[in-house]
Amino acid sequence: MTSNYAGVIIIKDKKILLIHRDNDPAIPYPNCWSVVGGMLEEGESFEEGAKREVLEEANISLKSMSFFAKITREDGSESHYYYSRVNDEDIKEMKLGNEGQEIKFFSLDEVVNLPLTKSLKKYMHTFMDKIKSLVES
What we know:
By secondary structure, this protein is an alpha+beta fold. It has helices at residues 46-58, 108-111, 118-126, 128-136; strands at 5-12, 15-20, 33-34, 36-39, 66-72, 78-85, 102-106. The protein is built from four helices and seven strands, in the order ββββαβββααα.
């Protein structure tokens, strides 16, 4: 059984939104920062899973999002990443859901100095130019 994942790079004012994962040794990457996202539920598309996770974890209902990247892991499971630009109105109800310690927007310079999940660290490095062009445009 493979576990497919969907995550969203949420951009506002040249910063990206990250969630600080719980400091619980029972979960993968405790006390690390990650993009908002999670595992897909049974029968759920990647897009549906991404939007659901953003709503559950940050209380943001995304109006639109665009495809960013697809990663196929060694076990055959996939991670699909999307991006979405938000404004003050879009995030006026933003709050931490039932997972994580906090959610916060960071500049890319700040992100590289945070304790990141293994996958985010890897993909930030792999896709840095593409992420920079999105954030800075």
